[in-house]
């Protein structure tokens, strides 16, 4: 009888040990599920932030590329000094970006022996387009030349290049 009682006690202890192990494992799994849910939410936030950064980087790269496609102030200065005739000189050269961020315009004021001809000279340039006088040409008695003010847009490249993320 004692052997049967010991066997029954061993079976009950074995079942209790198995049940306890199962309960501990289930508690550990539940805790891991909660930690995984928290980590998943954090990972989704990080992924969202990375996607936003990638979009911003792409937009910044696109803007830098557009900016690099347009002639800069040094290019405008070089082209202006190359094409303006010797009988003309500038008192002001202003470069302004367009409001839409695509393109720029140049405003020039100065003196010339033949101010109206400067419009055609600028239109024949490789970087200026749509040149026009912005005020009437007036003779300056002190300089003995015509005072002019003209404006031209910078030539925009045909199409933007493709940005690879």
Model description:
The protein has 165 residues and is of the alpha+beta class. The protein folds into 2 domains: 1-69; 70-154, 2-Layer Sandwich (Alpha-Beta Plaits), CATH 3.30.70. 52% of the residues lie in helices and 23% in strands. The chain has 3 helices and 5 strands. Strand 4 and strand 5 (145-154) form a beta hairpin. The longest helix is centred in the N-terminal third of the chain and has 68 residues, at 2-69. The model is unreliable at 160-165 (pLDDT under 50).
Short key terms for the protein model shown above:
165 residues; alpha+beta; Alpha-Beta Plaits; five-stranded antiparallel beta sheet; 52% helix; rod-shaped
Tally of separate domains: 2
Backbone shape: rod-shaped
Q: Please identify the structural class as seen in this structure.
A: alpha+beta
Which range best describes the helical content: under 10%, 10-25%, 25-40%, 40-55%, 55-70% or over 70%?
A: 40-55%
What is the CATH T-level topology of the largest domain? Answer: Alpha-Beta Plaits
Major beta sheet, specifics? 5 strands, antiparallel
Query: Assembly type of the shown chains?
Result: single chain
Percent of residues in beta strands: 15-25%
Outline the low-pLDDT stretches: 160-165
């Amino acid at each position: 009888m004692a052997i049967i009682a010991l066997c029954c006690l061993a079976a009950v202890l074995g079942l209790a040990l198995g049940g306890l192990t199962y309960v501990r494992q289930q508690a550990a799994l539940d805790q891991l599920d909660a930690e995984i849910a928290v980590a998943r939410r954090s990972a989704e936030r990080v992924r969202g932030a990375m996607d936003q950064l990638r979009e911003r980087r792409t937009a910044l790269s696109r803007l830098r590329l557009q900016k690099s496609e347009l002639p800069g102030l040094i290019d405008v200065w070089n082209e202006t000094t190359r094409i303006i005739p010797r009988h003309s000189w500038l008192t002001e050269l202003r470069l302004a970006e367009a409001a839409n961020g695509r393109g720029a315009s140049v405003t020039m004021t100065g003196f010339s022996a033949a101010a109206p001809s400067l419009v055609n000279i600028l239109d024949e340039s490789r970087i200026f387009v749509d040149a026009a006088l912005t005020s009437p040409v007036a003779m300056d008695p002190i300089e003995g030349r015509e005072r002019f003010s003209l404006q031209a847009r910078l030539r925009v490249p045909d199409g933007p290049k493709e940005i690879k993320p």
